[in-house]
Amino acid sequence: MAEIFDQHLHNVTVHFERAEEYPAGQGPLKTYIIEAHDLNGNAPSLGRVNDVLGNIQERFLFQVEPTDDPTLAILKKEDVRYFLDFLNPRFWVVHTTANIKPSEEYLDELVRGSWNLDYAWLPTQVLEHLRKGRRFLGFNVDFDQTLFLSEGAPDELQEQAAVFKSRYWGTRGEKLYEFLSQKTALSSVLCLSAVKYSLSDLPCSAYIQNELNAQGRIKATGNSIALHLGAVTHLVNLYSEMIETLEKELGLAFIHGEEGDELHGYPLTLRFSQPVPDFLGLVKEILSCRDPVRFWGVASHEERDFVRAEVVDLHSASRLRLDFTPNHVVVYLFRGSCGNSVARLLRIIQEHLDPTVYFELERPTVFDQCKEA
User: Fold this and answer.
1) Taking a C-beta distance cutoff of 8 angstroms, is the pair 165, 142 a contact?
2) What is the pLDDT of residue 1?
3) Confidence label for 165 from pLDDT (cuts 50, 70 and 90)
4) Which backbone phi and psi does 68 adopt, to 5 degrees?
5) What is the helix, strand, coil percentage profile of the chain, to 5?
6) Would you state the pLDDT for residue 15?
7) Is residue 163 exposed (0-12), middle (13-18) or buried (19+ Cβ within 10 Å)?
8) Measured between alpha carbons, how far is 266 from 334 in angstroms, rounded to an integer?
9) Which fold has domain 2-119?
10) Helices (H), the chain
11) Amino acid 14: pLDDT
């Protein structure tokens, strides 16, 4: 696999923003991180991975071809070919050189149609962390508050809803992003959705340019598959630590001990920098079953500025409890539920309500390292 992609990188030079214009197989190398889980929230066993692959073949009409490597398979649909690496059974790595439109269409159909698969959901703070120490070549910002407006919201609320979308690719990306970050008026709308950076190995004359987005997709061009795969491995390890930290720290359960049952885990509070302008709009949208949140929930207790809801994640069948107020959301993640549900909720709140919201755990974790870097 590495030899195929190394040859592709040497033979193809593309501009990311024009990727869809290139003939089939001539676009940038694209790598996706896919989160996989069983009903108990754990990583599927190798046997269960093979069952999932069988389901992919039967339900989504992919051809599935095994390889000599038991943790590597080839998926084909029409003229799109994917290399699926499940060395880490919880976080799969999918590579393709196919054109971006059909490759993402088929992959999206697969992920959205499978209860046991999901994308990665990278907070804006983690995207910023991942570009640190690398040559920063640009960024995307995507923020839109209209998602959490109630139907028929007053004109005043609709006028106040902020929308900020911008892209800059170029060598002055570092200075421009720092300039925007220092503007207090922009901090409430500056939500990173992608970063572009380069890595190089000067003694070997090797380099790679990666464009990483918030769902864990990396588009790559350059001449070194080793540098690209190194960046992918770093991302997988970081995201794996993030999700496993959420599940280990937050997972609520009574554990039997020497002195009786003890409650393990604790609620997570997502604090807003200012009160939500349309509180009921936020609650209704998060519990609506709709994309992008995909939570189904029923309110078990309601007051003027407080709603408690019992929630099921339609993507993973995970069970959560959410407490809503105009100033924060408290997340109760039960033992055996999927931490990716919490990551998705945070990312969507950042994109559509408040980019400054972040994980606040009781002890120092990987999330603090990313925020402080």
Assistant:
1) yes
2) 76
3) very high
4) -65, -20
5) 35, 30, 30
6) 53
7) exposed
8) 9
9) Double Stranded RNA Binding Domain (3.30.160)
10) 2-11, 46-60, 100-112, 124-131, 155-160, 173-181, 225-250, 279-286, 339-352, 366-372
11) 55
Q: Classify 81 in phi/psi space as left (phi over 0), alpha (psi -120 to 50) or beta.
A: beta
DSSP annotation of 125: H
Q: Where are the domains of the chain?
A: 2-119, 249-372
Q: What is the pLDDT of residues 99-116, one digit of tens each?
A: 889 999 999 999 999 989
Eight-state DSSP code of residue 252: B
Query: CA–CA separation, 97 vs 294, rounded Å?
Result: 30
Exposed e or buried b per residue across 231-249, where buried means at least 16 C-beta atoms within 10 angstroms of its C-beta: bbeebbebbbebbebbbeb
Distance CA 26, CA 328 (A): 47
In Å, how far from its chain's centre is CA 265? 23
Q: Note the pLDDT of residue 12.
A: 67
Q: Answer yes or no: are the C-beta atoms of 274 and 185 closer than 8 Å.
A: no
**Quick check: helix, strand or coil at residue 157?**
helix
What is the mean pLDDT of the segment spanning 14-43? 73
Alpha carbon distance 280, 278 (integer Å) = 6
pLDDT of 221 above 60: yes
Q: How far is CA 54 from the centre of its chain?
A: 25
Burial label for 291, CB within 10 Å (0-12, 13-18, 19+), is exposed
**Per-residue pLDDT reduced to its tens digit, 308-324:** 999 999 988 889 999 99
At 124-161, the pLDDT tens digits run 999 999 988 899 999 999 999 999 999 888 888 888 88
Helix (H, G, I), strand (E, B) or coil at 264: strand
